[in-house]
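Open question from group meeting: does this chain pack into something compact, or does most of it stay loose? Before anyone orders reagents, we agreed to write out a predicted structure and look at it together. Recording both the input and the output here so the notebook holds the full record.
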Amino acid sequence: MFREIVVGFDGSDPSRRAFERAVEMARAEGGRVTLVYAFDPVPFTPLEVYGVAPPTVRSTEIERAHKMLQHAAERADNVKTDVVVETGYPADVLVETAKARKADLVVVGSRGMRAIGRFMLGSVSDRVVHMAPCAVLVVH
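Structure tokens returned:
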């Protein structure tokens, strides 16, 4: 049974399909879905050494991500849905969220990269498959 489902969501078509599938599964099992959006870490700036935060659009991006996840969550009729927005590499954030929530399943969309793209850039879905503490569903 998949009662705790974690979904990687970035607003792309593959992530939307992953979310729709997770909602179907949660509805059938009486489960909960946690939508996760992860920001890649911001590069370190020398000003941070002195306790001066550089001007950044990060807060605007975080607000935008929360709104996007909330909007998606509203479409999950009668399925309990949580949202998580974190800074970190997406695969790592998904795996850590799955561990913290004792997830039964992680659902991610596949971008359909060819082998050379996966080799050069890595693949969130590939890393999650190898690192997750639970079952993983990759939705095409």
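Observations to bring back to the group:
Residues 4-139 form a domain with the Rossmann fold fold (CATH 3.40.50.620).
Residues 113-121 have pLDDT under 50 and may be disordered.
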